[in-house]
Write a structure and sequence with these properties.
The complex is a heterodimer.
Chain A: H1 10-15, E1 17-19, E2 22-24, E3 28-29, E4 34-35, E5 44-51, H2 56-63, E6 69-74, H3 80-87, E7 92-98, E8 154-157, H4 160-173, E9 186-195, H5 201-214, E10 222-224, E11 226-233, E12 249-255, H6 269-288, E13 298-304, H7 312-322, E14 333-339, E15 349-353, H8 356-359, H9 363-376, E16 383-386, H10 398-404, E17 409-413, H11 444-449, H12 453-472, H13 486-497, H14 503-508, H15 533-546, E18 548-550, H16 554-558, E19 572-576, E20 590-594, E21 597-602, H17 604-607, E22 620-622, E23 624-634, H18 637-663, H19 665-668
Parallel strand pairs in A: 5-6, 6-7, 7-8, 12-13, 12-14, 14-17, 15-16
Antiparallel strand pairs in A: 1-23, 2-8, 3-4, 3-22, 5-9, 9-23, 10-22, 11-13, 11-21, 15-17, 18-20, 19-20
Helix pairs in contact in A: 6-12, 6-13, 6-15, 7-10, 9-12, 12-13
Chain B: H1 4-21, H2 33-36, H3 53-58, H4 63-78, H5 84-115, H6 121-160, H7 170-197, H8 212-240, H9 243-259, H10 266-287, H11 292-300, H12 305-313
The chains are: A alpha/beta, B mainly alpha.
């Protein structure tokens, strides 16, 4: 035998270098359009060309002699202008984008200039002068790239080492020599990201239903984006019954998801994490106040999922409230406070946005509220200021509630008009964006505990919010005791932005969920399998911060219906694994009783089976089989044809020779003797 | 039991079928022209039974037809080696023998690798060389075992055949066994590479030679040819007990296997291997009975008489009367 190569699959290893740390751009569909990227079913291959400045594009678009090309694009050039040029040509078979380090200084946002337009409250029937961002463009940096449809695959190279390997391969083989083209073999890349769904949600849901009806082995092509909203109340309520219509609630809301151009890349530091972390801290501060049980109004803390995609979570909650499927009804909501992007305050100002159209009708309510909130800001390093009268509400969950019923409410943000966030819904919305900095040389535990300036700033906001809520709920005492804890906030920021797998998160989750804490950078994309890690963690953090530890055994905690006095409808019981004993490897689990619950966040369009609805969100995500990327060398067509022709020629020659020898065998192999003998 | 007339008619029909299977020119047609008019027998337009037409009707036991059939069967079996079923059976068997030898060799190598220190690269390389050598020796041993098996089969078939000669020819079997050995060896060494060559890439991104596929193909061709030639030489050497031939075959196999360790320096490995193939080819040709004279005769000839004469003279049919 011949051992010319080592064992088994080593030939494949000689040919391909797989790229492991990549993120694809996938296809999303709504009622009328498809967005995102698509590759051929057997992957798209192209000769690599590195584009680091605009002039390099000419080689790809016109001069290069070996199209189609696979472009390795520098992050700073990933803008609308370049992408329009690439879209229009057939000489590009795919794109790999490397993250720009540091973040592009002029800002980068692939989201829309007017996020969630058409699904908020402003339409031609209600405040038409504010619809479609006529007065205020919320996201001026927005290029809308995420919402375009590309017919070639686009991948993000997250690892700088892999980008360097590709550039090295390019330098070795693909650099043009003296104006003429480079010689074969050339370095090439292949990207696989074939998406199954096409056209729109209407088409793909129809195909799903055909498959489910007629096929033995149905093949689904797309899934609606869904997850769970997390909600909790200050005073416990009976979740299996409807609340008395005379009871009043103050609703506090934030969103917990974000998005970027690439699948499952959504750090969302400023757009989501800062707001819900502040919200969690305010909830903790309120629960610690001494006389909360005396407050006349209840407070409901709600964390909406899927808000990035036309308000999936909030539209579902409003729908459930209208259809009596939720313990509360819209009539129970006394007022609404929303926190949106609060980390990048200019100075000490926190802006209050209100709806100009309803303000004219509900002047009285707003006055009361405003008075309450402005008073409570005394003593904190935050100045609450109202924006001008003629400005609409920014994109917020509050708009969905306003669509259903006129509720007085405010949206608190750090921006007066356009977003302060120059990386809204992009991969650059990272801890650096909200100025989170840690000193060098800290261990992970120390980093968890270190209180950053960002945490302190958010703690101030949380304190103000908590005090305002206390006043709004009818509290009359002095509010100076209500303080948000910066230590909790910094731990939450670390866990939700840098590393989920830290000791605090480990101690507050259920024992069978500890696998969800990964070591990668946490991402907050709503996804199609639920609940996602973010939802779980928000749920358990809220339970830990607002719940109480009760003395129940594991059996009793897991089966509260059998335990007397457990009041299963009022509370939720969770058996959490507890923190590590300092000198041992075992944990001390305990039972936490809280009012935290999950409610389904699936767009009502899918409940009502109105796939083409313009009223509710219809976002779905396509399914796919494999997503991967690899680089290798390709040979020229001439060499391939020569190899094939030589092979065929040798085959034909050998057949002819064998036939000839076989036919003349008795002549060729005869030993010449007298003819009497036998030939064979 | 058939009626006698029907039996004879049937026998004659079968005889006719057999006779007409042979080429016309081979036939010796014999019939008495003056008897045809009033005989009830059919004329046999093709091959010979060499019978008087009147004898066919008179033969009560069909013995004349019986002998006719034997005669035709003999002629057919003379070219039995052209009938593929026997050869393919043997070649499958041979391929299986090669597979077993490969299995044993890889078992030995596997055990050695796991017993030794896996981190030591030099040791692992040495074990690889040793494994290759063991595999070569095992293959030759199995070739010898197959030769013995074939000899036994040959003797067995000879004893049960009619005339004491076996229907298979050892020379042809040597060629078939060598070829099947080569085919299975070639398939095993090239299928893996072929499967990976289907993708869009070629070897070379880590610095290997980009001519990997084409040189593998040529190497496989050399392997197939070498095994065929070695088969012929080996069997002939075992038959004639020329053990120095055997040793030379084994040594040349070892040398070829060792030359592949010079890859990726393809010039140093492929050229000598092809030189060895060419030499082995010439040696096998002469061993199988060829000569320059025969080649010249073949290239220039259009005469077919010699072969016919030889075939005819091989017909030694004992006529039963």
């Amino acid at each position: 035998g011949f051992f010319s190569s080592c064992e088994g699959n080593s030939v494949e290893r000689k040919i391909y270098i797989p790229l492991n740390k990549t993120a694809p751009c996938v296809r999303l569909l709504n009622a009328t359009h498809q967005i995102g990227c698509q590759s051929s079913i057997s992957g798209d291959t192209g000769v690599i060309h590195v584009v680091e400045k605009e002039e390099d594009l000419n080689w790809v678009l016109a001069d290069g002699p070996h199209p189609p090309y696979m472009i390795l694009l520098d992050g700073n050039l990933f803008n609308r202008l370049v992408m329009q040029q690439l879209k229009g040509t057939s000489r590009v078979s795919g794109l790999a984008v490397s993250i720009a380090k540091p973040n592009p200084p002029q800002g980068f946002s692939p989201g829309l200039k007017c996020p969630n337009d058409g699904f908020g409250v402003y339409s031609k029937d209600y405040g038409p002068q504010y619809a479609h961002c006529n007065r205020t463009v919320w996201n001026p940096v927005g290029s809308g790239l995420s919402y375009e449809d590309f017919d070639f695959p686009i991948f993000l190279l997250e690892d700088a080492n892999e980008t360097q390997v590709i550039k090295q391969c390019y330098q070795d083989h693909n650099v043009p020599t003296d104006g003429s083209g480079p010689e074969y073999p050339l370095c090439a890349m292949q990207l696989f990201s074939h998406m199954h769904a096409v056209t729109s949600t209407v088409t793909c849901m129809r195909r799903n239903s055909i498959q489910n009806t007629f096929s033995i082995n149905p093949e689904t092509v797309c899934d609606p984006l869904l997850d769970y909203n997390v909600w909790s109340t200050l005073h416990p309520i009976n979740s299996s019954e409807k609340v008395d219509p005379k009871k009043e609630f103050i609703m506090v809301a934030t969103r917990i998801d974000s998005h970027s151009f690439f699948w499952n890349i959504a750090p969302g530091a400023e757009s989501a994490v800062s707001s819900f972390v502040t919200h969690l801290a305010a909830a903790e501060a309120l629960h610690k106040a001494s006389d909360v049980h005396l407050l006349q109004r209840n407070i409901m803390f709600t964390f909406f999922q899927g808000e990035t995609f036309d308000y999936i979570g909030s539209s579902r909650m409003v729908y459930d409230m209208e259809k009596d499927k939720f313990p509360l009804r819209l009539e129970n909501i006394h007022s609404f406070v929303e926190l949106n992007q609060v980390a990048l305050r200019n100075g000490s100002i926190l802006w209050m946005h209100t709806d100009p159209v309803s303000r004219l009708n509900k002047k009285l309510h707003i006055q009361n509220k405003k008075g309450g909130t402005v008073n409570s800001s005394v003593g904190a390093n935050v100045t609450l200021q109202e924006v001008g009268f003629s400005q609409s509400l920014p994109p917020s969950s509050f708009q969905r509630f306003l669509r259903a019923r006129h509720i007085p409410g405010v949206v608190l943000t750090d921006h007066q008009a356009s977003f302060q966030n120059r990386y809204y819904q992009s991969m650059y919305d990272t801890p650096e964006n909200i100025r989170m900095q840690y000193p060098e040389g800290l261990s992970p535990e120390e980093t968890l505990e270190y209180v950053t300036d960002t945490a302190k700033s958010l703690a101030e906001v949380a304190t103000v919010v908590a005090r305002a809520l206390y006043r709004l709920a009818g509290g009359a005492n002095d509010t100076s005791a209500i303080q948000a804890d910066p230590k909790t906030i910094t731990q939450m920021l670390y866990g939700f932005l840098i590393k989920m797998n830290n000791s605090w998160f480990q101690s507050i989750i259920k024992p069978d969920l500890k696998g969800i804490l990964g070591d990668d950078v946490p991402q907050h994309y709503v996804a199609v399998s639920s609940p996602v890690n973010t939802t779980y963690l928000v749920q358990y953090v809220l339970a830990n911060l607002t719940g109480t530890v009760v003395n129940l055994t594991k059996e009793e905690c897991l089966n509260p219906e059998k335990t007397p006095n457990a009041e299963k409808e009022m509370y939720d019981y969770a058996w959490v694994q507890g923190s590590l004993d300092p000198n041992s490897t075992s944990r001390v689990p305990y039972c936490v009783r809280s009012t935290v619950r999950l409610s389904k966040a699936l767009s009502p369009a899918f409940e009502l089976r109105e796939w083409g609805s313009t009223e509710y969100s219809t976002w779905t995500e396509s399914r796919w089989k494999e997503i991967r990327a690899r680089i290798f060398l390709v040979a020229s067509k001439e060499l391939e044809i020569i190899t094939l022709v030589v092979g065929i020629a040798i085959l034909v020659f050998s057949l002819v020779a064998t036939h000839f020898i076989n036919a003349k065998a008795d002549v060729l192999f005869s030993i010449p003797r007298d003819p009497g003998a036998v030939a064979y | 039991m058939w009626p006698r007339e029907r039996k004879e008619d049937f026998c004659l029909q079968i005889c006719l079928i057999f006779s007409c299977a042979l080429p016309r020119a081979d036939c010796h047609v014999s019939h008495d022209s003056h008897q045809t008019a009033n005989s009830t027998t059919k004329n046999f337009p093709c091959c010979t039974c060499d019978l008087e037409p009147r004898q066919t009707t008179a033969a009560a036991d069909g013995s004349a037809c019986h002998s006719c059939m034997i005669l035709n069967l003999r002629i057919l079996s003379a070219s039995a080696a052209r009938v593929p079923c026997l050869s393919s059976l043997f070649s499958l068997c041979r391929a299986f023998f090669w597979l077993v030898s490969l299995l044993l060799a890889s078992l030995i190598w596997f055990i050695l690798v796991h017993l030794s220190d896996q981190g030591n690269a030099r040791l692992q390389y040495g074990l690889l060389v040793f494994g290759a050598a063991v595999s070569v020796l095992l293959q030759e041993a199995f070739r010898f075992a197959y030769f013995k098996l074939l000899k036994k089969a040959d003797e067995g078939l000879a004893t049960i055949s009619e005339d004491g000669r076996s229907p298979i020819s050892l020379k042809q079997m040597a060629y078939v066994s060598g070829l099947s050995f080569g085919i299975i060896s070639g398939v095993f060494s090239v299928i893996n590479i072929l499967a990976d060559s289907i993708g869009p890439g070629i070897v070379g991104i880590h610095g290997d030679s980009p001519y990997y596929f084409i040189t593998s193909a040529f190497l496989t061709m050399a392997v197939v040819l070498l095994h065929t030639f070695w088969g012929v030489i080996f069997f002939d050497a075992c038959e004639k007990r020329r053990y120095w031939c055997l040793g030379l075959v084994v040594i040349s196999h070892l040398v070829t296997s060792g030359l592949t360790f010079l890859n990726p320096w393809y010039v140093a490995s492929l050229v000598p291997i092809y030189i060895i193939t060419f030499c082995m080819g010439i040696w096998a040709f002469f061993t199988a009975g060829g000569s320059f004279h025969n080649i010249l005769k073949c290239l220039s000839c259009k005469q077919e008489d010699d072969s016919r004469v030889m075939m005819y003279s091989a017909l030694q049919v004992p006529f039963e009367d």
